[in-house]
Amino acid sequence: MELNEDDKILFYGDHCWVPYFRSHFDDFVEYGSSDTRVLDELDHQMLKNLKSRFDEGSHFKLMASHLLSVDNAGHQFDVRSPHIERMIGIVDHIIEQIVEMMDDKTTLVIFGDHGLTEDGNHGGESRLEMASAFFAFQKTPFPMYDSYLKNKDLYKEMDDSVRLGDVTAITSLLLNTQYPFSNMGKMHPLLAPSGDIRVVHEKFLDNMRQMNAYLKEYCRRTQNLWCPEETGLLQKKIDEFEGFDPSRATDRQITE
Ligand SMILES: [Zn+2]
Question: I need a labelling partner for 116 at 20 to 30 A (CA). Which of 68, 70, 85, 108 fits?
Fold first, then answer.
């Protein structure tokens, strides 16, 4: 992701991320999560760090936190355990505190990277393990909010199909930066930094062009059997989009 020199990226969370992204973090605090018996301790420490960061009034472009306690409790107990309930309460409290500390220009995005089975584990392909939540909040309305509400029926398919991989595209959209070259996720118009549907249309097209460029490069190198069909389909979609002139269409037609 291309950010300006003075745009700080902060990270607080599981130590497994640090070896991969250390060079991108301006500041980080890592926690060891191998001991799943340590339940709420890690998240309490994290809140302390987040608070001190906000107290200093330090400006950052992106702050990422990884809350571990609900997952840890899941591995140790089953989903009906009072421990899970208690950990969810702790996470709720942390979110409350973050919302209180946030200024009007910040967007809070919360998502889970997996769900849990009845016995509190994950890693398989059942719906309980795969399904999770995606939530975004800011203190001022999202620029696209009115337009989104007016045409909510047209967004149903997109709303129902936000995937973990889409978080990359959505984050780029929120930060108003380029989509990373190897991104395979799709943005969501509601989180666009502009309320002008024509600008959002362009952002969507950028997203498709970026995925197309990556897919073409990927296929050039791998020559996978599915390549001709998939690249053809995406190219056709892009041609359709490019053939459409948003300046001569109504907002609803563009949304469609
Ligand atoms: Zn886990």
Answer: 108
Q: For residue 57, name the pLDDT band (cuts at 50, 70, 90).
A: low
How far from the centroid of its chain's Cα atoms is residue 126's Cα? 22
Q: Residue 173 C-alpha to ligand 1 middle, in angstroms? A: 28
Cα 122 to middle of ligand 1, angstroms: 6
Distance 49 CA to ligand 1 centre (A): 23
89 three-class SS: helix
Instruction: Identify the architecture of domain 1-140 in CATH.
Output: 3-Layer(aba) Sandwich (3.40)
- Over range 154-161, report the average pLDDT: 90
205-248, pLDDT tens digit by residue? 999 999 999 999 999 999 999 999 999 999 999 998 888 888 77
Distance CA 143, CA 193 (A): 7
Distance 112 CA to ligand 1 centre (A): 11
Instruction: Calculate how far, in angstroms, residue 36's C-alpha sits from the geometric centre of ligand 1.
Output: 9
Distance CA 224, CA 213 (A): 16
With vertex at residue 56, the alpha carbon angle to CA 137 and CA 16, rounded to the nearest 5 degrees, is: 65
**Residue 166 CA to ligand 1 centre (angstroms):** 21
Domains of the chain, by residue range, sit at 1-140, 145-256
